[in-house]
Fold each of these.
Amino acid sequence: MNQQEGYADDVVKGFITWSMVWGLVAVLVGVLISFQIAFPQLNLPPYLTYGRLRPIHTNAGIFGWGIGSFMAFFYYITQRLTRTGIWSPGLARVQLWLFNLAIALAAVTLALGMNRSKEYAELEWPVASLVVVVWVIFAINIVMTIVKRREEQMYISLWYILATLVGVAVLYLVNNASIPVSLTKSYSAYAGANDANVQWWYGHNAVAMVLTTPPLAIFYYFLPKATGVPIYSHRMGVIAFWSLIFMYLWTGAHHLLWAPVPDWVQTLAMAFSVMLIAPSWAAVFNGYFSMNGQWHQMRENYLVKFLIFGITFYGAQTLQGPSQSIRTFSAFIHFTDWVPGHVHMGTLGWVSLVLFAAIYYTLPRIYGTEIYSIRLANVHFWLVLTGQLMFSISMWIAGVQQAAMLNATNPDGSLHYSFMETMIEIYPYWHIRALGGVVYLAGLCVFLYNIWKTVAGAKTQGAAQPA
Amino acid sequence: MDLASIYYLGVTILLFLVFAAIVARTYSKKHKASGEEPKYRMMNDDHPEENGKGGRDVRRK
């Protein structure tokens, strides 16, 4: 029997299942485009080219795998932290179907070349409008569940969940404001530097409100659950939350350093980006201090490995990010392969490792069974860790080399290397990146097999039980 | 200093004061126990308090 009877967990199962499907799509397409960069002849126009596939990769990864999982765990966590069922399970089911419809439409329209050409906001207005409907349903359901809660005090994860709901809504509506000219084409409501400023206010805060606050909500919930020991300091979590929220929304313009936006806007973004180290590392320290006397669990508990490596990559990510926002360093690494190395440490390392742990913890509980194989989970961990490190480290080295070559000048001030010469030097690293993607994909396949056997085993057990 | 600058400075100071108030309240001795309580209560949340869906708004106590 399901040991957590009383909570509406069917929709959690649905979101987890579909997020894994979209995650597989994201990694498959990611591996394909990494090979297309290393071997350009693999680009098959018009549909199977890097230009069409890249936004499918990012949308499937960030929104299909990321948001899909967050929806699952927000429902799972919110019910438990409020000790009440979802406000409307029916609405949550509608949301699941609309969510999948939106992601499928995104994949199809992007493959057909319908694209607003805005980073992480590529979807044309009909699909973008559907996303708004999905988010409104989601927000209403979660907020109403929290309003009707039976726990007076809100655990820190709930604050991060609320911030995500509000933050994404504001960002998405402002940046997607556009003027439709046909069913498949619209123009941004902003122009020039204003458009760029709005876009990167959105672009960076999508990282804040999609790839930072939700995994933190999940981390703060599942680390204590996995270790069996409460987090080190709830109050530190609260202060870190508020300082993160106060600071993050000012940082987007660090993507526009050296661009024609006002200097004070750039400096403000840079200053707030550097200050963000404090709340980010408060979460990292909270995680590490929670392990006091529990570090042996890194050997014995596979969930802890995923979570602690995840928060460690978050720590590394939040040192890289602020340093990249400093003008001189930004000038050095901008437009180089350092940037995908940085981004993928966040997505493959921080976000995905935390989500893997959450899925391993949650699914056996809501299916009332045990994980199929802890050994396979460990194999999965080492494969994805190796794949991610191969990807990130090769790109960091490639980025520094690329930057050094692009900045090298002769005594007369002319460039020492042509652009083509810099490209040729980068090919070995692109091969390593593609190989890293294959290793990560192998790890993902092990994960999916383990989960499939876990769920199949649970169904078999259920069928074998006497009526 | 023009009106816009005074407005921006005012908003900045206001936000800082709000944040300082949150820090002061969170770390006050009076709220220490209640501030840390949720981390213990969440460790035992695998069952709803009562059967059935829905609940009541605790803020209406």
Note: Strands of chain A lie at 178-182, 185-188.
Amino acid sequence: MTSAQNDASIVDEGTAPHERREPSYLAGGYRLIDWLTTRDHKRIAVLYAISITFFFFLGGVAAALIRLELATPQGDLVSDDTYNKLFTAHGIIMVWLFLIPSIPAVLGNFLMPLMIGARDLAFPRLNLASWYLYMAGGAIVLWALLAGGVDTGWTFYTPFSSMFSNSHVVAALSGVLVLGFSSILTGLNFIVSVHTLRARGLSWFRLPLFVWANYATSLILVLATPVLAMTLVLVAIERLFQVGIFDPALGGDPLLFQHLFWFYSHPAVYIMVLPAMGVASEIIPCFARRPVFGYRFMAYAILAIAVIGFLVWGHHMFVSGQSMYAGMVFSLLSFLVAIPSAIKVFNWTATLYKGSIRFSAPMLYALGFVGLFTIGGLTGLFLASLALDVHLSDTYFVVAHFHYIMVGGSVMAYLGGIHFWWPKVTGRMYSDTWGKIAALVIFAGFNLTFFPQYLLGYAGMPRRYHSYPGEFQLLHVLSSAGAVILAVGYLMPLGYLAWSLRYGARATPNPWRATGLEWQTDSPPPEHNFAIAPVVVREPYAYTPEGP
Amino acid sequence: MNTDFHLLPADAAASASRLDSFALCLLLLTGTVALVLLALMIGFSIRYRAGSNADRTHVPKQGLSVEIAWTVIPLLLFLGIYAWGAIDYVKLYQAPANAMPVFVVAKQWMWEAEHRNGRREIGQLHLPLGRPVRMVMTSQDVIHSFFVPDFRVKQDVVPGRYTSIVFTPSRTGEYRLYCAEYCGTEHAMMLGRIVVMQPAAFAQWLEAGPRQPGMAARGFELYRRYGCSGCHDPGSSVHAPDLTGLLGRRVHLADGRELTADEPYIRDSILVPAKDVVAGYAPIMPSFAGQVGEEDILAIIEYIRESAHDQRTERR
């Protein structure tokens, strides 16, 4: 981006759009250096999309090897040590390099300014810096994984990680630490932008729910991530200098780590799923041609999840040796946080009532999200129940539960969002038929992969085992077969979306007849988003079954 | 060991079937909710698909009474589930007075168990049928987790503290013991075998085979060797609390607190004596941290537990 573009004058509200049409943000500055030095939130979103896609498939390769290994009970494909490093790599990559940044950093970056009618985020340079931090963190993690791997699991439980593991723990910790700073900066940027850059007339209760969701997510990122950073530094200090913090042999407390870690990592689940809820709340009203049912309740539910989400970390520790009474309090709070989630599912369902529903690809992904999130949420009740959690924790039941929430939920919604806003981002349409086929393949593959794991878990199969007793094999084979279908499903969008970049039909500004502000500008949007600074005069989701 | 797959693990402990009924009720409840939601979504999708001639007048945008209903009803249901789960959970940790203690030290990557009479076993654990068992567990290195699916019990085994869990084997046979907390390279190999025997057969097994002197006897020996008796014996010149029959007694502390003397309390008093000083005594005891191993501490605790019985015998 040149300096001339950077200090472009404020749009004159009196000029008609066609007289002052700006070139799209993709035009001009084709060189690599133009992209690597851009301060345009849309280009930064594209940078994130490319890097995050890379890490998603890298984490997917680790997952594929894990499922392949588990097809037989003996553990004969890779050694135990390699297996431990594989599931650690899968966890670290998927959680920190894919799930946490996916929707906020890609879709949020692209859409937040457009949705609030702003020209960019509040701090464009900071935005670019957070992408560089993401890349730096990713590079460090990648180095740790390639230089020999890490075998602690993504949870880094002490004293194993701090004193006993012989792998590259400190490097992995440093990578995650840097990634944490990246998400703090993104969160900060979103919070300030929503507070200061909303268009005229865009009051808080006229914000799209996607903005609400990313706003709430940003609050969690800014408040919780520093705790993670501090915790990782403490582990590194204990490991490097043998200062007794977590290892009882040095005078430390191993449960202290779990409290600190989950104080971040439970809210992190909401970092992954709140933006997904935001995406579903945009897609479902649009394709049902109905205003989202109970808009204000939906917004309050987002805030309630973000706030109560901070108070439930102890439900990861029901059998850790923390006091029985702590367990009872954390269990109660965990049931409370399930209520706003339930409200959201009911409201999405009610939004379909008396609509005029079209089943385009984004809608299939969004409905798939609601279904999988519902199953994941309901099985969460089993884990929140104290006595049942005693049996189920650290088994495949937990693995199935969080994959339903994070993969079934977040990834489905992320793909739904990619399909929904693809015409806006690229200016091209893709094949709706292929989109629908992929959505169905992913949905089927996902359920076949993870539903058997609930049964495995109840039957007593512990997680993180590279070999297992023979009676569990049937369900593992089903799960591995599902993973093959799932992998095919994930590769399909890569193909037809890439194809659309070159051969897809040109997209009109608003192919879905949606009412959000982002659809009031060109596809792809001009560099400064709006030819005329928009003024908002109506409530969000002004859909009618008859269509506008 | 049974190699056929069963959806439900065997209910080989008294609490297991209770837990299964809870799980079944919860499954029926959540299943109903899921099916109703699915039916609504599919029903609406068909009825209100684009182009159908369904009635779309009076489109509701919000409904306060509906919102309140679907907030309050789940809230009440959740509170019910919570209470059920919490009550069962508390029962899992309440040890009956006749519970038989078994001591477990976990290490990478094996389970070591010791019975009160000193019989030790590695990688397996023999238990009598129908008697409540209280596992008193600690780890020598990293966090492990004691998991027996057929008993529906799991408890993390944490270095630096004792954790315990109570269960009553209700069916003879062999059951798998797993380590459920990831503990390093051979985590998946940290398996054990639990053998539940008829009480008579168990008593026979307990007396047969090689064993050390009883834990309490070994504890008495250690109690002497580490010099505990020098201060804590009734006739000693140094004024220290009498430990006879200490386990289970209420203890008043110098700072006004009060607690029940259990295994973790005695362990802390040996390793961190300044933590809980008994009322009326000066905090002069040195710490034994780094000098006395976990297995020795367990033996000393066992000696202190036995001292209560000795006292009762003397009184008779």
Note: Residues 1-17 of chain A have pLDDT under 50 and may be disordered.
